[in-house]
Design goal:
It contains 24 helices and 10 strands. By secondary structure, the protein is of the alpha+beta class. The protein starts with a helix and ends in a 6-residue tail after the last helix. Helix 9 runs parallel beside helix 11 and helix 10 runs antiparallel to helix 11.
Length: 748
């Protein structure tokens, strides 16, 4: 196949170049269609129960995502003319924004009072009180009512929150920017915090855009330095980078054509492709320059170069594709899309490197004849020493390897699973500080929704809703719960002379209907629209949860679901959804994804090595450095307290895809050496010859990924650090553990 590629490329170089650019341009036309989406809902399969329940809930109630605007007055309390006026202004402004379907605050909450003729429903804060006495009366009335204390206003009265429920199709970023401008204008002397799922999504989108602008220049600078140090020629610097950037453009353009959005994990793809793909071009150019030391005929040199590097580049590309495509086995759409798109990018860079680069080199002048570059003496001595140690102390090398595996294996159970996107931001960020304040003083920033499909006016159903709320409120992470049952209990109390003993669900459906009717005579039926539909067939419990670890959220969700399954009979259908439940589902799916990808990738690598070298023993040995590296990576995450999140969970597949090249290069050279030398000499020569390119490749790839430490998002920083470190570990494992293992293989 290499002969055919060389013949066609060198016979029709201009055609190859033109076709390469045409393909790139056609794919690039999809770039304007790129959209950014960091909505956690879209990371989950469409048929997931929590997502199906959310779709149903949003069809009934219009939306579920809650944007929180919290205003604080630490000097006194929020009960003063200036702060109360701002609460009203923010409430009215939010209510007027397209896409906001409902606003709840001190300015919209209503007090329910019993009267001789029935009940009276009046707003707490219809307009700003003009006297100190009126303000004190409002404060006393609010805290005496207690229904919204801790929810809309903190216990100490220094914090008040405004909750805006957004439509499922609303423009999150547009609303967020509008609210930011509004609150920025009002934020003196009060302090205003923005939080909630829409804010997390908007800030994630902003940070992703910022990362794309900042990280690409960094990785390009690293690539330029690497190429210059490698070749010190214009073609050596320009051509590998050109092929890689054309692959990046093609990859991003394909996303636009397929309408695949940029999510957090996609944000690393351009950096990743540059870090991985530039090596293919380096192999081609380096082989060409090497052949020019023997002949000045460009065509002959390029033909020999393609023959020489064609198979290694193809094998490197295929193994990298296998590692990335292992993520396509995941049930999570975000991983599947990532795997397909990045694999396409790798394929395009590999094709451009093998075709376009030789075609351009053929048309360019022959560079000044280069002397064959010798391996640095210091590195040669170091690699020789490594080889001698491996050969002399092979049992010790293997024993140390096993000990390290055991040590780091103990770190794996300590890995913390964290899918809550709020933890992706540094603790110093405005979003983390806002979340901390809201969780400390108010009812929390994360919502859980429980949908009831039944005869909602039934006393039995309302009692079930109340029972679920009480179960939820047993957990300290639950800030508040509210539902139609909450309101009906208060109505029953008011109708019984405000006797606290009657704050319970009435005993009959008729009594419930009567209480709601009396409310509607003074209040408005719209006051119930966030809790129940017009037909009284669907209702929801809204629980605001304080940010907690994903593990804890999962425990709470499982406990409440189990409670419902054992407590209630089948005459009512109960469905759980909301952001909290998504975190629970994400934990399970990410673990499943990592397991599937790991097994798939290792099996593919084993089969490729077995088929390539015609030995199942070699197949097993090929995955040893990879297995050691994966255990090291996961154990290090556990010991260092690095969370396993959606981005960091991909590290194992990336390491397999890139790191297996080291094993294949080592085994290929060992196979050649073993044909002409006995085992010890073959291993010595293999370490000395391929040691430098393996270490160079690991270092170069590591530095390429290391630019991710400049990301605004913590998981991407950790991802860059871990991949850079594991590349070095994988290279060292290949030169030591794999080499020591080969001494026990008796080759034919």
């Amino acid at each position: 196949m290499n002969e055919k590629i060389a013949k066609y490329v060198l016979t029709y170089p201009k055609t190859v170049i033109i076709c390469s650019f045409i393909i790139t341009i056609l794919l690039a036309l999809g770039i304007p269609n790129i959209r950014i989406d960091d909505d956690v809902k879209n990371m989950l399969p469409k048929d997931l129960p929590a997502r199906l329940a959310l779709n149903e809930l949003e069809d009934i109630f219009g939306g579920s995502d809650v944007l929180l605007v919290t205003i604080s007055n630490e000097e006194q309390t929020i009960f003063n003319k200036g702060t109360l006026a701002k609460i009203i202004e923010i409430t009215d402004s939010l209510d007027a924004i397209p896409g906001v379907i409902r606003v709840t605050s001190l300015a919209t909450a209503k007090q329910i009072k019993g009267e001789e003729w029935g009940m009276e429903v009046t707003p707490f804060l219809e307009e700003v009180p003009q006297t100190e006495d009126a303000i004190k009366k409002l404060e006393k009335t609010f805290f005496d009512d207690s229904l919204y204390v801790g929810n809309l206003v903190s216990q100490d009265g220094k914090y008040a929150t405004i909750l805006a429920v957004m439509d499922e199709n609303s423009e999150t970023m547009v609303i967020y920017e509008g609210v930011r401008q509004l609150t920025g204008r009002l934020e003196v002397p009060e302090k205003i915090y923005l939080c909630g799922t829409p804010v997390v999504q908007a800030e994630s989108t902003k940070n992703m855009k910022s990362d794309m602008r900042r990280l690409m220049p960094f990785v390009l600078i690293v690539a330029l330095i690497l190429l210059y140090l490698s070749f010190r020629t214009l073609s050596g610097v320009f051509l590998p980078l050109l092929a890689t950037m054309m692959g990046v453009v093609s990859m991003i353009g394909l996303m636009g054509h397929l309408d695949k959005p940029f999510m957090m994990v996609n944000n690393v793809m351009p950096v990743m492709l540059v870090a991985v793909g530039v090596a293919y071009g380096i192999h081609v150019v380096a082989a060409y320059y090497e052949e020019l030391t023997n002949t000045m005929d460009k065509r002959e040199a390029l033909t020999l170069a393609i023959r020489k590097v064609g198979t290694p580049v193809l094998m490197a590309g295929l193994t990298t594709l296998a590692g990335f495509l292992s993520l396509a086995t995941s049930p999570l759409p975000v991983y599947f899309n990532f795997a397909i798109i990045i694999a396409f990018g790798v394929f395009m860079v590999m094709c451009f490197s093998m075709t376009m680069i030789p075609a351009i080199l053929l048309l360019m002048p022959v560079p000044k004849k280069k002397k064959a570059q010798k391996q640095p003496a210091l590195l040669d001595r170091l690699l020789t020493s490594v080889a001698n140690i491996v050969l002399r102390f092979r049992y010790v090398v293997l024993a140390l390897g096993i000990v390290l595996i055991i040590i780091f294996a103990f770190g794996i159970p300590q890995i913390n699973l964290e899918m809550n996107a709020i933890t992706y931001f540094p603790e110093s960020s405005d979003l983390r500080q806002a979340d901390e304040k809201i969780n400390q003083h108010l009812s929390g920033s994360v919502n859980m929704n429980i949908l009831f499909n039944a005869d909602i006016e039934s006393a039995e159903v309302l009692s079930a809703m109340d029972s679920v709320q009480q179960r939820l409120e047993q957990f300290p992470e639950t800030g508040s719960t509210i539902s139609l049952a909450t309101i009906v209990k208060r109505l029953n109390r008011v109708l019984h002379a405000d006797n606290p003993q009657f704050e319970r669900i009435p005993e009959s459906k008729e009594a419930v209907s009567q209480a709601i009717l009396l409310y509607n005579m003074s209040g408005s039926p719209e006051d119930f629209e966030q809790f129940v539909d017009n037909s009284f067939e669907n209702s929801q419990v809204i629980a605001m949860m304080k940010s907690a670890s994903t593990k804890r959220i999962s425990e709470i969700a499982n406990a409440v679901e189990q409670y419902c399954n054992t407590k209630f009979d089948n005459n009512m259908e109960i469905k759980f959804t909301g952001y909290s439940l998504f975190l629970k589902e994400l934990v399970e799916l990410v673990i499943e994804s990592v397991g599937r990808a790991l097994i798939f990738a290792l099996v593919i690598v084993f089969l490729m090595a077995w088929l390539t070298y015609r030995s199942w023993k070699i197949g097993v040995l090929a995955i040893i450095p990879i297995a050691v590296t994966i255990i090291f990576n996961l154990g290090l995450m556990g010991f260092a307290g690095i969370d396993l999140s959606i981005p960091t969970a991909m590290i194992t597949s990336i390491v397999i895809g890139i790191g297996v090249d080291f094993s294949f290069h080592f085994l290929s050279r060992f196979q050649i050496e073993r044909k002409i030398n006995e085992s010890s000499t073959a291993i010595l020569n293999t370490i000395r010859t391929v040691g430098q390119p393996i270490l160079f490749n690991a270092t170069a790839t590591g530095f390429g990924f290391l630019v991710l430490v400049f990301s605004n998002l913590l998981p991407l920083r950790y991802m860059g650090l871990l991949i850079a470190l594991t590349m070095i570990i994988c290279a060292l494992g290949t030169l030591t553990i794999l080499a020591a293992s080969l001494t026990f293989i008796k080759s034919k």
